[in-house]
């Protein structure tokens, strides 16, 4: 039996460690709600709090940013020449944009996003089977290379279908690279991937948790979903790879995502995102004409690729969303599966509604993360009081991430509207400067709203005790979700 004095000293040591961490938190200012949440956890449950802080907090963000920048500089000299040529021939700059969109284009340029490019052809997919069929057909037609970057690839029938297709293409002489998030693909085994590796396919783990090498943070995840085939065709959006994302599991059926197929100059920017992430993970340099072919003008869509992540000093995605909300003149439509806004986002939604902009949020009531749903619901009353319309959809598990502004332009991507996507995850957003594509997204939004329930939140003071406590606790934890 452990003596009492040992427990006493362990308790004192944990309290001292918690106080040291709290001092470190106060010396490195960040979002106040997040700081307060961590301080409360450290004070109330010091031992568990220290473990959670060691794995989930972001004190090594500067170190991580430096490592990413060093990696990026290694490739940038080679990238710059190709980027300059692309910019001269295909860039759609602020002066080309409509007057109302020029501030947005300038903002993205200053935030370091890739410039918009014209001459693209974009197809929007809302149905998972059509999405997977298009990706499967594109991979099957590959002649040079296939680059896939995903947060989740499940070891099930759908995952095996993609794996076996990559094996077949590798045996045909096509270079196949698969970059997977280490935590997102925790269910994948070496046994599942071994046939692909044995065939010559290359598999790498993004952001692995390896304590002895200093890579043990859970928080920084690669949430991007990208497929590039032969440098000509690209796919991106919110669709992972697995049976559940095709609505084949009873618990998550049916499932709905929004995904894009892009052909044209913008595919080179998707390729560049993959090249940077692959180089950071493997140190293999993919810069060259084989992977960055002369772009072809195949359509009339203007597309912009916006990567974001903790390696950037500015919170690019947060800035972009705030700018979109402030720029709206008539309407804002948002679909997000996880809605946990910060105070700035709440104010932006309220301000838009007070200006007379019709603001509508569509959030799934059928969700795989109940705590996140409760946290989002805790904001409903103050948003609706300002005139924001909130709808909950329970016919499908709605996993799309879409924002459409004034029926002029729209964003589709991998990012949720929460702290994790704003500050911690590596995300990828596509801006569509096309009225035709935006109208398609609007029509889809309207069809979903027609089968959704408009929320009329009760005054928080009138909620039952259990409900109010549940929403309050979820909201308190929202900076950590």
Describe this structure in words.
There is one protein chain. This protein is α/β, with parallel strands linked by helices and 481 residues long. It has three domains: 4-57; 65-94 and 119-301, Endonuclease Chain A (Endonuclease, Chain A, 2-Layer Sandwich), CATH 3.30.870; 316-480, Endonuclease, Chain A. The chain contains 16 helices and 17 strands. The protein has helices spanning 4-27, 32-44, 46-56, 61-90, 102-110, 128-140, 157-171, 190-199, 266-282, 316-327, 343-354, 370-377, 380-385, 419-424, 435-449, 465-476; strands spanning 117-125, 145-150, 175-181, 202-206, 226-229, 233-237, 255-256, 259-263, 301-308, 331-335, 358-364, 389-393, 397-398, 402-405, 409-413, 427-432, 453-454. Helix 7 (157-171) packs parallel to helix 8. The longest helix is centred in the N-terminal third of the chain and has 30 residues, at 61-90. The chain is globular and about 65 Å long.
Brief account:
This protein is α/β, with parallel strands linked by helices.
Give structural attributes.
481 residues; alpha/beta; Endonuclease, Chain A; 15-stranded mixed β-sheet; 16 helices; 44% helix; 18% strand
Structural class: alpha/beta
| Separation, N- and C-terminal Cα atoms | 39 Å
Largest sheet: 15 strands, mixed
Low-confidence stretches: none
Shape: globular
The CATH C-level name of the largest domain is Alpha Beta
How many helices? The count is 16
Rounded average pLDDT = 83
Percent strand: 15-25%
Strand order of the largest sheet: 4-3-2-5-6-8-1-9-16-15-14-10-11-12-17
Cα-atom Rg, whole angstroms? 23 Å
CATH architecture grouping of the largest domain: 2-Layer Sandwich
Query: What name is given to the CATH topology of the largest domain?
Result: Endonuclease, Chain A
Bin the helical content. 40-55%
By DSSP, the count of extended strands is: 17
Q: How many domains, as an integer?
A: 3
Which superfamily, in CATH terms, is the homologous superfamily of the largest domain? Endonuclease Chain A
């Amino acid at each position: 039996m452990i003596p009492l004095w040992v427990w006493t000293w362990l308790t004192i040591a944990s309290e001292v460690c918690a106080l040291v961490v709290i001092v470190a938190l106060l010396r490195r200012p960040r979002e106040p709600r997040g700081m307060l949440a961590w301080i409360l956890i450290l004070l109330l449950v010091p031992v568990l709090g220290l473990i959670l802080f060691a794995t989930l907090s972001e004190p090594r963000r500067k170190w991580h940013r430096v490592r990413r920048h060093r990696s990026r500089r290694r490739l940038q000299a080679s990238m710059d020449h190709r980027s300059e040529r692309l910019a001269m021939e295909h860039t759609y700059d602020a002066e080309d944009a409509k007057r109302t969109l020029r501030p947005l284009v300038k903002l993205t340029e200053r935030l370091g996003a890739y410039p918009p490019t014209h001459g693209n052809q974009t197809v929007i997919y809302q149905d998972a089977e059509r999405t997977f069929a298009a990706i499967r057909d594109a991979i099957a037609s590959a002649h040079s290379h296939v680059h896939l970057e995903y947060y989740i690839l499940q070891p099930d029938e759908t995952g095996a279908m993609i794996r076996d297709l990559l094996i077949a293409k590798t045996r045909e002489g096509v270079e196949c690279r698969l970059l997977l998030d280490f935590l997102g693909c925790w269910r994948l085994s070496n046994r599942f991937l071994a046939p692909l590796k044995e065939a010559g396919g290359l598999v790498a783990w993004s952001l692995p948790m390896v304590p002895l090498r200093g890579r043990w943070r859970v928080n920084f995840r690669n949430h991007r979903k990208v497929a590039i085939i032969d440098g000509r065709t690209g796919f991106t959006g919110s669709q992972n790879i697995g049976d559940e994302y095709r609505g084949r599991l009873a618990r998550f059926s049916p499932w709905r995502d929004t995904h894009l197929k892009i052909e044209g100059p913008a595919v080179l920017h998707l390729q560049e995102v993959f090249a940077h992430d692959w180089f950071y993970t493997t140190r293999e340099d993919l810069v060259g004409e084989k992977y960055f072919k002369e772009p072809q003008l195949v359509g009339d869509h203007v597309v912009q690729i916006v990567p974001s992540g903790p390696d950037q000093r500015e919170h690019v995605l947060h800035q972009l969303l705030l700018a979109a909300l402030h720029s709206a003149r008539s309407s804002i439509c948002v679909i997000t599966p996880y809605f946990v806004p910060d105070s700035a986002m709440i104010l932006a939604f309220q301000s838009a509604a007070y200006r007379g902009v019709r603001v509508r949020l569509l959030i799934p009531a059928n969700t795989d993360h109940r705590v996140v749903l409760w946290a989002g619901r805790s904001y409903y009353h103050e948003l609706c009081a300002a005139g924001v319309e909130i709808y909950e959809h329970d016919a499908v598990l709605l996993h799309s991430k879409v924002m459409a502004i004034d029926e002029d332009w729209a964003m589709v991507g991998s990012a949720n509207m929460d702290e994790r996507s704003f500050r911690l995850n590596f995300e990828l957003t596509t801006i569509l400067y096309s009225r035709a594509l935006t109208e398609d997204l609007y029509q889809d939004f309207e069809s979903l709203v027609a089968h959704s329930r408009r929320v009329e939140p009760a005054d928080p003071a009138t909620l039952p005790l259990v409900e109010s406590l549940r929403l309050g606790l979820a909201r308190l934890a929202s900076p950590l979700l």
